[in-house]
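About this split. The held-out portion is used to measure sequence recovery: a designer receives only the structure tokens and must propose an amino acid at every position. Recovery is the fraction of positions where the proposal matches the reference. Here is one held-out target exactly as it appears in the evaluation file.
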């Protein structure tokens, strides 16, 4: 395998802040990759895909591969599948749980990578204080990486695993990422709800980022 083949990879991409920053980071570091968008029946799939096409550079956007596995969660009461009415419904973090969602995404991404001869799967999972998924721990990801490497040929790479959302946002600004155009609300496909784990992480990160920038201006 030559150097260019070793750098050929798959990126799980959703149009959200983290995976978009990772796409720009990979591009800057000379990693050739194919963005893979997985439609697992999430109510915001169309909005996510449209956002993804908009925020990625044209040369990368043209390589997006869409994979549809929506039947897996068809009929689920999770608010990630059954969209809530922001005016009527009270939604809590537990209402957004989908069983083994992260395992599903990583397994599909790894299977696609191995089937098409890519050497690595990149994922933008971060160290979130608000993530509620049971398959989102450092131990889980470490064991999964070992399993996939042992029984296949795909490395699972998570460069942002120890990053906070504000650190990712800061990196995104340095890389020229249109972070304001990214979208990752788990409750609404039209207007960010502001209270789901994704929105809370995002708002906290931007607030921290702006505070740092204001201090820099003041000093």
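Reference sequence for scoring:
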């Amino acid at each position: 395998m030559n150097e260019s083949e070793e750098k050929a990879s798959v990126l799980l991409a959703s149009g959200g802040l983290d995976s978009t920053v990772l796409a720009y980071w990979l591009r800057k570091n000379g990693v050739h990759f194919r963005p893979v968008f997985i439609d697992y029946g999430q109510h915001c799939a169309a909005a996510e895909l449209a956002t993804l096409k908009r925020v990625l550079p044209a040369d990368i956007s043209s390589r997006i591969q869409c994979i549809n596995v929506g039947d897996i969660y068809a009929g689920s009461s999770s608010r990630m599948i059954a969209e809530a009415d922001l005016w009527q419904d009270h939604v809590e973090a537990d209402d957004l749980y989908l069983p083994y969602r992260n395992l599903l995404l990583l397994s599909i991404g790894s299977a696609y990578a191995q089937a098409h001869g890519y050497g690595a799967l990149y994922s933008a999972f971060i160290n979130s204080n608000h993530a509620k998924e049971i398959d989102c721990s450092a131990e889980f990801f470490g064991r999964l990486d070992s399993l996939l490497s042992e029984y296949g040929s795909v490395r699972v790479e998570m460069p942002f695993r120890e990053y906070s959302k504000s650190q990712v946002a800061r990196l995104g600004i340095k890389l020229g990422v249109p972070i304001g155009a990214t979208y990752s609300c788990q409750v609404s496909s039209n207007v960010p709800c502001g209270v789901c784990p994704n929105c809370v992480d995002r708002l906290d990160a931007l607030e921290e980022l702006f505070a740092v920038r204001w201090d820099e201006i003041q000093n």
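Annotator remark: The beta strands are 9-12, 33-39, 65-68, 120-122, 155-157.
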